[in-house]
Amino acid sequence: MATNIFILGFLLFISASIVLASDQSPLQDFCVADEASAVLVNGAACKDPTKVQAEDFFTSGLQLRGNVSNAVGSLVTLVNVARIPGLNTLGISLARIDYAPRGLNPPHFHPRATEIFTVIEGTIEAGFITSNPENRLIKKVLNKGDVFVFPMGLIHFQRNLGNNYAVAKSALSSQNPGIVTIAKAVFGSNPDIPSDILAKAFQLDLNTVNSLQTKF
To answer: What range(s) does the Cupin type-1 domain occupy (predicted)?
Structure first.
């Protein structure tokens, strides 16, 4: 009997842990982020609901083309809780991604969100890499109207295969999905990761590592 109770309790604990592994569900109609609050919580403190306005749930400008004149030829415009305070506790966000011809959204991952990606214009190659030890690359060429999913926490990328401008939009399962761009994080950390560590990890010589660190 005691063993059965222990097993039941353990299963309930595991179930609760799984439920809490994503953004928490709201317990009221909304919890608009109070940018003036000094309270630190996992998310943002709630604004007085009597002072909430339509503007707290609104933003504009996603119809505008992003400036892709950079080294990788892409720009991500993220609409998260920092841009729409009303997203607080709702567990979603949105992004527009613009690509120059042959532009790349370099390998990165979102620590707190799964992403569903839709091509609006152009032909885009999209892919993600499974975790260790397989590290299998799963990729597909997408055309206008095609949809692809990047699982939470896995490294993924997109690149424009065409000679024309391309654009896509993504929905993410967190009000604040976070982004870790691999090259920037590894070679552009502040302070720098010691170059001998990177040289050994990536099997590169020190001069190459130092050169990469200066680029980021």
So the answer is: 60-210
